[in-house]
Amino acid sequence: MPIRSMTGFAQVKGQIDSQLGFSLSLKSVNHRFLDLHFRMPSDTDSLEMQLRRKLKENLARGHVELTLNLQPLGGETFALNRELVGGYIQAFRTAASDFGLAAEPDLNAILRIPGALDSAICPVNSELESAVLSKLDEALRHLTEMREEEGKGTARELRQRMKNIQRACREVEKHRQATLKTYTEKLNARIQELVGSQVEPERILQEAALLVDRSDIQEELVRLDNHVHHFLGLLDQGGEIGKKLDFLLQEMNREANTLLSKTSGLAGEALKITESGLSMKSEVEKAREQVQNLE
């Protein structure tokens, strides 16, 4: 299954007979879960339930808006609800008479009352439901094609981000041994300054070696490399991988932070490691922005 973005749009149109047409649109943006919203005419609860079920069968994540508009192909679009409007006018005039007011009802205000204007479109029936459901398949196909095309572009960018992280890791590895040597020399000099000749040199070197080992960044580099290979494997696998990729990027960011903390406060080659570590973090953040939009 190809990688799909959560961003997409599709619109299709249909017609029942010479009197009634409709348009159906789907708009999708990123979301942690599948979040469905419907904008449909009244009295379409049954149709909405069927549309909702189909969307859940075809989409895994995203904020999805479905809009259904019915379009009369001839005749009046609205009909006056005479009973409601007449009742309002009569009530208005009765109240005006009771309180001795010389006033007439405002037609503009009356027509804004909910239900004052009824749609002249025929009510939803099984024929319309069948036509809309059929067109939903077409809309979903167009939406999926757009989401997959967006996904291809995102996957290409993510692969480039992983290459940049691997390049930064190689730069860090290149300077790692020199940094350890610098750290050892600095630590040894500091210990000699503090204790002088009261402690045997071998003991000092043992303590220095222990501290240097704790400050080594080899483990972080190995884990970063593993995460990158896992990440690329998921891209090759495809499907619904957005959440997995986001988790791996969080782990990469954690390793980059640890790497930077272990080499902070050192000069020389360590500054080049800091530069590469910051580059890693930048690439991870850019990748996360893209992954947030994958299904």
Counted beta strands: 6
* Helicity range: 55-70%
Mean of the pLDDT scores? 83
In quaternary terms, these chains amount to: single chain
Q: Low-confidence parts lasting 5 or more residues at pLDDT below 50?
A: none
The count of helical stretches stands at 8
Instruction: Give the end-to-end Cα distance, rounded to a whole number of Å.
Output: 12 Å
Describe the model.
With 295 residues, the protein is an alpha+beta fold. It folds into three domains: 8-76 and 125-148, Ribosomal Protein S5, domain 2 (2-Layer Sandwich); 78-117, no CATH class; 151-291, Butyryl-CoA Dehydrogenase, subunit A, domain 3 (Up-down Bundle), CATH 1.20.140. 62% of the residues lie in helices and 14% in strands. It contains eight helices and six strands. The chain has helices at residues 45-58, 82-98, 107-111, 126-195, 201-214, 218-237, 242-262, 269-291; strands at residues 8-15, 20-29, 34-39, 62-72, 78-80, 117-119. The termini are close together. The mean pLDDT is 83.
